[in-house]
Amino acid sequence: MRTFKKHLEEKLKDREFREFYKEERQLMEMSLKIAEARKNSGLSQKELAQKARVTQQQLSKVENGLNCNLLTFLKVCQALGMTINLGNVAT
């Protein structure tokens, strides 16, 4: 029986899949950090959405790593007091 790990290792050999996987993984990591920060702040989704001036549905998309508007993402981060560090961005 083939394990998920073995399957993933095989798929990651493909350059296009590897790039997509990396992007999706980064998005999910950011989404999880936002959800964790909200919970640690003792805020409900509704309360944070109001603070960020977005809808609760938009916030849910951010926390679930679904396609969301960058401005929505930035508003949520700002409302949580989070900053986004882009590191060394090539120009």
Features:
91 residues, mainly alpha, 5 helices
Structural account:
The longest helix is centred in the N-terminal third of the chain and has 26 residues, at 15-40. The chain has one domain (4-79): lambda repressor-like DNA-binding domains (434 Repressor (Amino-terminal Domain)), CATH 1.10.260. The chain has helices at 4-11, 15-40, 45-52, 56-63, 70-79. α3 (45-52) packs across α4 (56-63) and α3 packs across α5 (70-79). The chain has 91 residues and is mainly α. The model has no long low-confidence stretch (mean pLDDT 89). It has 5 helices and no strands.
Count the DSSP helices: 5
Structural class: mainly alpha
Query: Gap between N and C termini, in Å?
Result: 46 Å
Strand content is under 5%
CATH homologous superfamily identity: lambda repressor-like DNA-binding domains
CATH fold call? 434 Repressor (Amino-terminal Domain)
Summarize the biggest pleated sheet: none
Q: Which stretches are low in confidence, meaning pLDDT under 50 for 5 or more residues running?
A: none
Shape: elongated
| Rg value | 16 Å
The SSE string, one letter per element, is: HHHHH
Helix content: 55-70%
| pLDDT averaged over residues | 89
Identify the CATH architecture: Orthogonal Bundle
What's the total number of strands? 0
Compute the number of structural domains.
1
